[in-house]
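Input chain follows. Return structure tokens only.
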Amino acid sequence: MRYSRLGYVLVLALMVFACRAAAAAPVPAAAPAAPAAEAAPKELLEMADQAAKEVETLRGWKFKEPVQKKVCTPEFVRAYLDKQVEKQCPPAKVLEIQAFLRTVGLLPPAADLKKMFLDILQGQVGGFYDTDTKTLYMVKHGGAPAPGVERILMIHELVHALDDQHVNLDEFLKPLIGQTEDMDIAASSVMEGSATSLMTQYMTRALLAGQLNAAEMQAYTEGEAENTKALMDAPRYFTSILGSYICGMQFLAKGNILAVAMAPDNQAVGRNLQAVVKDPPKSSEQILHPEKYWDAGKRDDPVVVNDDAAARLLASPNRAVVHKNTVGEMLTAVLTAPKDSKPNLLLMQMADAWTNTAAKGWGGDRFFLLASGPSAEAAGKSLKDLQGVWITLWDTPKDRDEFADAFDANAASAHATFRLGNMAAVVFFGFDEAERKALEARFEKSPPPMTQSGKPWSPWSL
């Protein structure tokens, strides 16, 4: 359910710490719901026009048409997003995703995914660009941010608008968003990395030139401490979505953020974005480790599990697969982090903070959520007697063992881990011992077919 990205107040906190930032994401969808937004005041329009020129200069692209600008309230944002969640992720699918996240341990057992998502987002969004109406919305939170801060956030959103006019963000996102948690992260990282890199370049230059007041930015951040705390105290599933900004920036820099920061413009990032839109990354692993995408000799596409074969292996007369998903490296790092670890704003500026030893070497994964019922349709509607099977695949036996040891030590959910072959681990949730042992024997005898880049892949390979 990650079709939108957070990051307003956290943007400013990261700026203060290390001159890196992220702003609220564009929300691809239909026209906004009531309450209505207002026309932007003259001073805001003038600021936006100036910011647009900065964006054009740094990226080397021109706006093909003017971007509409409006202002709105947090209540507007909530009504708008509530409508879009229902459109892009209907209630039945939200419940499936919620059940999956609870089962694997990314959400607490009683967590209401949609409510938590909207509660957090309403307090964090400072602006967003709507790819359908081609409108930039700035959100009024009671007190206007300092002009320098508002300009930075505006620049981020205007990059989305410029990218949309040149590469069509809607066309890029629609086939990718909603497939899996991991693909949502990968797609969002491309979009956010583009805007974050240009905004970072602008901010760095403006600070060095004395055009931005770091004290004003810090004061505003401290004034938003309550909203910041709400996000940082949320389950790590929500906090982790900030990784798309930092890691996406590194990805579009081909791993060399310093070169982008020192470049006179943002044109190289624009060229990389155009290439990526034609050939999207296939995992958060490629976002976290850019060489696994950009270097042809190191290209590492994920191992794919045959869903139909896996569903047949797991099914029984009263049990069916009701949801399939992929966790990916970034969220696997969340699941294997020490239980007492807390998010650290200072560390979150670095892409390496979004993975760990237990998640590195990820080769692919597939999660199957099962429920009981007289038919697959009935099981999907009831979501009763939930069980989960998470097939994880690794680059080396050492990678597999590091994952299994860390997950067993830190997992929030009751489970049993079965090490299959040399490079796979299958995690079972909600099975009694006899049924689990029977499934382990099936996996040993005839695991579902797996492929990597179209070629057969085996858990016993070395």
